[in-house]
Amino acid sequence: MSALEIIGLFKGYGTQSVLRNLDFAPEAGSFTSILGPSGSGKTTLLRVIAGFERTDRGTVLLGGEVVDDVGHYVEPSHRRIGYVPQDGSLFPHLSIEQNVGFGLRRRDRHGSMVTELLEMVGLGGMQRRYPHQLSGGQQQRVALARALAIAPALVLLDEPFSSLDASLRATVRQDVRRVLREAGTTTVLVTHDRDEALSLADRVAIISDGRIGQYDPPVVIYARPSTPELAHGLGESNFLRGTASGSRVETPLGLLLLDSSSDGSGSAPEGSSLIVLVRPEQIVLSRDLGHGQGSARVVATEFYGHDAVVRLCADWDNSTIIVRTADATDLPAENSSVALSVRGPVVAWESGEATTYP
Amino acid sequence: MTLAPIEPSSGPETTDGGGHPVASRRIRRPRVLFGLSLLVVSALALPLAFLLIEAAGSGATGVWHLVWRSLTADLLWNTVRLTVVVTLLCAVIGTLSAYGVERTDLPGRHTWAVLVVIPFAIPDFIVSFGWNSLSTWVVGFRGAVLVMTLAVYPLVYLPVAASLRGADPGQEEIARSLGASGLTTFFRITLGQARRAIFGGCLLVALVIIAEYGAFEILGYQTFTTEIFSEFKIGFDTASACALSLVLVLVSLIVLVGERSARGSTRIDRSGPGVQRVLTRRHLGRAKVPVLLAYGLLVGAGLGVPVGSSIYWIFEGGAHELGGVPLGAAALHTAGYSAVAGLIATVMALPVALLVVRHPGRLHLFFERTTFLGLGMPGLVVGLALSYFSEQHADGFGYQSAAMLVFAYALLFFPLALVCVRASIVHAPVELEQVAGSLGIPRFGVFLRVTLPLISPGLGAAFCLVFLSAVTELTATLILIPTGAQTLATQFWAYQQNLSYGQAAPFALVIIAIAAVPSYVLARFFDRLPARRGDGPGQGVMT
Question: What ipTM goes with this model?
Answer without folding.
Answer: 0.74
